[in-house]
Description:
Layout: E1 15-18, H1 39-50, E2 54-60, H2 63-72, E3 83-85, H3 89-100, E4 107-111, H4 114-123, E5 128-131, H5 151-154, H6 156-172, H7 177-183, E6 186-192, H8 198-207, H9 220-228, E7 232-241, E8 244-256, E9 260-268, H10 277-292, E10 295-300, H11 307-315, E11 350-354, E12 365-368, H12 382-386
Parallel strand pairs: 1-2, 1-4, 2-3, 4-5, 6-12, 9-10
Antiparallel strand pairs: 6-7, 7-8, 8-9, 10-11
The protein binds zinc ion.
Pfam families: Hydrolase
Organism: Streptomyces clavifer
InterPro entries: Acyl_CoA_acyltransferase (IPR016181), FkbH_domain (IPR010037), HAD-like_sf (IPR036412), HAD_sf (IPR023214), HAD_SF_ppase_IIIC (IPR010033)
Amino acid sequence: MSDTAPVDPPATVKCLVWDLDNTLWRGTLLEDEDVVLPDAVREVIVGLDARGILQSVCSRNSHDHAWARLRALGVADYFVVPEIGWGRKSDAVRRITEQLDFAPATIAFIDDQPAERAEVAHHLPQVRCYPAEDAVKLLGLPEFSPRSVTVDSRQRRTMYQAGFRRTDEQARHTGSHEDFLRSLEMVMSIGRATDDELTRVEELTLRTSQMNATGVHYPDEALRALLAHPGHEVLVTTLEDRFGPHGAVGVVLLEKHARAWHLRLLATSCRVVAFGVGTILLNWLADQAARAGVHLLADFRATGRNRMMEIAYRFAGLDDRPCDCRGGVSGGPGGPGGPGGSGGSGEDVQLLHLVAGRRDAPTTVRLIAPDLTDPAPAGAGLPDRARRPGGPVG
Ligand SMILES: [Zn+2]
């Protein structure tokens, strides 16, 4: 999860830090209670939020006073880890950067005072600084225009806010880790991916490294082809708990043959390793295969970073034993259309095997999942059946 993005070309901004007086709002709060938030600035706040760019505040004011004003203006909820106080702004921006675990090159700072911008730029040269008059132009700048906006980008702020509350709760928790997991009231939903969700599936295949079984990047077109292909399952897993959504946390690409189901890819987000998502998914797949009366085969390719995934596979019982069912299945990293990225030859892909028995349901999450033993997906019409009416999950 290295976040040391290259500075050149500039990475997309992941968090914009706003000064308040005469930057976010017109006026100085200490002198005039009735500071004004221009509509154009409000549109920028809402627009950046919708693109999945987080926003924070760095202001010289009394915290309670300024926060109350942000609330009254109806925008307080848009800001995470605010720094409102009297210290140096570079220190405040650094604390924001650290709390979000972002690289300084992905942080932007906007302030009407040239001296404040200079102070931040001096101590944090990778942070991009903008004068207040640029506020209304931000939505048009390339560094504030992410390549794609997914379901999860749109709820990124909510996910971070939930994450902070969850972390606080965990720090206070005194029982076992399993007790803590149960206290979260987690709901894990596995669903057949819709067209809308393919971008978030692609992102997961890109961003997961430790918990990615092959390290193969499946671009959007390849996933789209899989989705339309009978006998293939493209599954997205989302997770939420009583604090809020985690968003999409896992992807499964499965090829169903008569005697065996071939797991082409299992990847889960490293954000949720501690919640056991990979193990729960594997157990569910094993159980589904047992119910269908088929063996489970799984591609695994060591990437140097995914040892954790190999352990999860081995722990679930997958091994190298010979079996007749291997005959009808081709290994190798490619998907339809030969996905790009770090594919390489098929020779370094191991085909792991399991004769699964029924598995117990997980005890730490409530699992909502389709029935893969339903024979219909092997025939035509999978995309229609797969499309859930409710839109995005999680
Ligand atoms: Zn077999």
